[in-house]
Amino acid sequence: MIITSLLDTDLYKFSMMQVVLHQFPAAQVEYRYKCRTPNVNLAPYLDEIRAEIHALCQLKFTDAELDYLRSLRFIKSDFVDFLGLFHLPEKCIDIGPGESEGEIAISVKGPWLHTILFEIPVLAIVNEVYFRNTCTEPGWEEGRQRLQKKMQLVTDDPALADFRVAEYGTRRRFSKLWHEEVVRTMKARMGVHFAGTSNVMMAMKHNVTPLGTMGHEYLQACQALGPRLRDSQVFALEVWAKEYRGDLGIALSDVYGMEAFLRDFDMYFCKLFDGARHDSGDPFSWGERMLEHYKANRTDPRTKTLVFSDALTIPRAIELAQRFAGRCKVSFGIGTNLTNDLGHEPLQIVMKMVRCNGQPVAKVSDSPQKTMCDDPAYLAYLRQVFQLPPA
Once rounded to an integer, what is the mean pLDDT over residues 169-196? Predict the structure, then answer.
């Protein structure tokens, strides 16, 4: 089976899940899968995907895994106790043929607390099933050579002594085997330049730092859970701060676009949060605007961290590091370009929350192709409420 541990997912799923347990235990949600890559035929592998997801739903956390989670400073004991009883409910996921030829449809519907862990392993399953059927002779050596060149760009340049990069590629990896080789190789050859991984299982197994804070679904759900829509972003950040009391302090900036984020990210949040994460739009202009925003709010940008994670490559990360050197702290998370760069076109697949408590929710990205909502009227209303330009 592809997924053999419930830790084989990204850390931010656990950090968000803990907030759900403590703040929103009754929330009901719906997620929907989408493949953005054209002309991908997954229909022949539907039964194989179903079998993998069935196996996923039989998994439970082991005592060693629970002990590891308990060792993380921001994970609370009652949450670990809950995870000791947890398994993914198979009745909440539906997998079948899609509307167009070759497409598949995957939806998840049920309690947020019990379904939040589906997304990452399901996407990893779809990826690996697809590639093991369509790429019977993977370019392992080509992948190793590409990885080596990427690492050398950092390790061979003395000017990059402070450069740190993390691996963020679980959901779009070519395979679990290759993913593990990437983590193992980067740890061995990059030394202090390797900041860690978003994958909790890999972090535990290879004794590296697990990384991650919040995802888009958290701020999306708060559109339905907060007091009113216009205040949902502020509400989400305040609830996060209430849960973590200064820990995990990187705010996600692109659920409503940069303009709306800066309107809500006032002096209080500038001082309270450790920094912000970029995940859509031009990263250089985003970074410049964040630095100006910190200065305008009497906050020294040099004390704050800008995290870049949108379709990054090592060369682009180096450019960003050079641009912002000495002006702020920077951190980089690279996903697909590390875990699925063996000479085959990666799949652009996502599984996003589309409803919470029966109400549509949406992400209005600075990259228009990343916007996802199944209700055009709600999306138009959201744009109006947050003073966003029409699509």
Answer: 97
Are 179 and 259 members of one domain? yes
CATH code, 62: 3.20.140.10
3-class state of residue 260 by DSSP: helix
**Nearest by Cα to 220 from 7, 15, 43, 16:** 16
Give how many domains the chain has, as a whole number: 2
Q: What is the DSSP letter of 342?
A: S
Whether the CA torsion 295, 299, 302, 305 is positive or negative: it is negative
> What is the predicted pLDDT for the residue at 286?
97
The predicted model scores a pTM of 0.96
Residues 72, 217 share a domain: no
153 and 17 in a common domain:
no
Return phi, psi of residue 216, to 5°.
-60, -35
Per-residue pLDDT tens for 11-60?
999 999 999 999 999 999 999 999 999 999 999 999 999 999 999 999 99
- Could you list the residue range(s) of the whole structural domain that residue 219 is in? 140-339
Q: How far is CA 105 from the centre of its chain?
A: 21
pLDDT value for 365: 74
What burial class does residue 280 get, using C-beta atoms within 10 Å of its C-beta: 0-12 exposed, 13-18 middle, 19+ buried? buried
The span from the CA of 311 to the CA of 341, in Å, is 12
Among 276, 170, 290, 151, residue whose Cα is nearest residue 219: 276
